[in-house]
Amino acid sequence: MPSVERFVYSFGPGRADGSAAMRDILGGKGAGLAEMANLGLPVPPGFTLSAKLCLAYIETGDLSDALREEVARHLKQLERAAGKRFGDRRNPLLVSVRSGAAVSMPGMMETILNLGLNDDTVQGLLEGSKNPRFAYDSYRRFVQMYGDVVFELGKEPFAEVLDEMKVRRRVERDIDLPPDDLEALVHEFKAIIQARSGVSFPEDPQRQLWGAIEAVFRSWNTRRAVDYRKVNGIPDTLGTAVNVVSMVYGNMGDDSGTGVAFTRDCRGGENTMNGDFLVNAQGEDVVSGARTPQPIAKMNRGRLAKVFKELTRIAAKLEQHFKDVQDIEFTFERGKLFMLQTRRAQRTGPAAVRIAVEMVEQGLITQDEAIQRVPPQDLDQLFHPMVDPKASVTVLAKGLPASPGAATGEAVFDADEAETLAKKGRKVILVRPETSPEDFHGIVAAQAVLTARGGMTSHAAVVARGMGKTCVVGAQGIDVDPAGGRFRANGRVVKRGQTITVDGTSGRVILGAAKVVHPKMGAHYAKLMTWADQRRRLRVRTNADTPADARRAREFGAEGIGLCRTEHMFFEGDRITAMREMIVAPDEAGRRGALAKLLPMQREDFAGIFEAMAGYPVTIRLLDPPLHEFLPHTREEIAGLAKAMHLPPARLKRLVASLVEANPMLGHRGCRLGITYPEITEMQARAIFEAACRVVSRGKKVNVEVMVPLVATVEELRRQAQIIRRVAQEVFHAEGRAVPCLVGTMIELPRAALTADDIAREAEFFSFGTNDLTQTTFGLSRDDAGRFLPFYVEAGILPDDPFQVLDQEGVGRLMELAVRLGRGVRPELKVGICGEHGGEPSSVKFCHRVGMNYVSCSPFRVPIARLAAAQAALEEAGVINRTRATV
Q1: pLDDT (tens digit, 9 = 90+) per residue, 753-811?
Q2: Which string of DSSP letters, residue by residue, matches 13-43?
Q3: Which of 763, 592, 577 is nearest to 686 (CA)?
Q4: In the chain, N or C: fewer CB atoms in 10 Å?
Q5: Exposed/middle/buried for 534, CB within 10 Å: 0-12, 13-18, 19+?
């Protein structure tokens, strides 16, 4: 074991060895328990084993004698605090053993309740409670959890026996079984463990404890935990702490219960405490979704009103203390409230925005802290589609709206199948009776999640909400048959593969594909983005190829166009025909004839884009078509083009064949096309400047930047720039006016980055095309690498897919070098990025750090880039991200 100062930290009412600041050691759950104890809140006593032990145990499979001795001392201390003895027949101390990583991973790791029970100690529990049903229900739960978690037998073998018993007794709930049946279940569960593992269930509480501790440490590396960390960017090196806590019982009768509360609504952000609770239940009943709980507001009546009032007081105190929305777990035993956990609540994107803004207005946090509170990628959820309110739909059932948005797909009933079909490009809806952590990979793959059971704090709800994925839970009108691949709802049967729509905003389950519309952004979003725009230095542009894209991007706050891909303007109708004529033309005269047809089309498009951008800079990339994308391929396409060009089809077929390249992405494209056929560059430059002058003549402002693609040498850029500038002067002279214009290049080849000082002598701006720069730096084809890159990421060879998250160590180092070299020659050099990385938050922050002027991304990612740029500026200024410091 590693040499550390301390292994174990105790907590109890009014005091604790640790605090909220010790998340890396105590994990989120342990840090929250310690902090609540220090605040004097009603916390059951217990102790936490440091998360620092987890990875060492996983590596060696061993726990030191020193740790065992320290745990023994703290267990004695816990016995004194609880007034009970571990393993005592008359007054037994029972404990829960729970995981807790520094970053919340709801439901991903293991929990065991009621540990310490055996055939002797259950008698003490029975005599002390005078409640045989409670005693044997607790024992049954313990053996069931222990068999699942420690012996790794899964839930199914125990659930099948339990369900058979309930059917035989004609009861719906576990707690409705009589004590004799619960006792019989204990013996059956032990027999299952013996038969399936070859090892008997441990009766010794000490053996039970160490078996549970080791199982919790091992759960750090279960598939669901690893998948969750990968999806949420949580480091594998954190490990989990283990919390050993004196049991309090929510299953002692109708004056006892358990629940989960959020200090604000984490779906929409309203400032109202909400959550779920169950009477006569233990915590796993709520979060597993096995029983559908009641809304927490219903506690405020009858005998539970006093508990509700105390919970409301504590919830308000915790939110004020942590200055963030809290996710609280609690149990009440015979009317007495106990706090079992508090942590930063996961929330949807819309809720995150509203909560952050309203907390500023309430004086809890500053504007800068509000900016840091919202994960930039969560803004994407604000633009989720919703079912058109005017659409006529067939509603199959209605459940609880756990996570907003609307999603359509094929109904599937198995997580593995959901993952398999999603990898094939199919859109699926995962339908389950309830989800468990083992379903996590299916939730990731699905468009939405639908469960028949569970509440707003069930596993499916919390996980989907944290991912921004549409989810409806507790749809009691449906009967799910996973084995049969179907569900029934109000007399209808929906089979595997049928299309349904899940409306996570209203809770409706709709037959077929419902019409969806996109919501409008609200006042909270506008206020947050105003604050963000005031903080950021980095400008945000958009990649747009049409006036419609440009207008949409302006609505999202784009401050110009960083990439207008002119070849994308030629994929339709007469345009593709004229483009093909130009490509296959056998001589210059033929090319010029085709280009004359393309000129007015380009001019019209550019004029529309300039008007939409209203004076903001527009970077137009000259033609960069991998020729294979435009060549006619089918017999019909060749025949049609031959007719338009007045050529025999056989001759055209030979011309097309002569243009086929072995590797078109590294072939005759980019500036190479304009250098060999300068008339192409002339036509585009003329279209650009004529459009600009005509828009200016209508009293509008235009700011043009012409970008030469795929430059490897300064001479390539020089020759293209000469043509562009010559044509510009010809057009300005003919039109009698001039427009502001820069000529620059796209840095997308390693050689261009390495010789950026030479290239900057000709270029007035650089724009990094990180899609191609990643391809050429790694030597990977973006089109083909998808076959093996997922394995590289899964195996830890690469931390992320480099086409999604910028490779800062390799590609990023080339970019830093190019910026430094370029500005060494031309200090005022404008530098930006226009690859897809321009809308990925960590990549945006990298661009800020290396001193770029702007990033450019697709229209819907503009808000994400704006917020990420503001966070980068605040991080540079040293503003603490309170989100990371909050339990």
Answers
A1: 999 999 999 999 999 999 899 999 999 887 677 778 878 887 889 988 898 899 999 99
A2: TTEES--GGGHHHHHHHHHHHHHHHHTT---
A3: 592
A4: N
A5: exposed
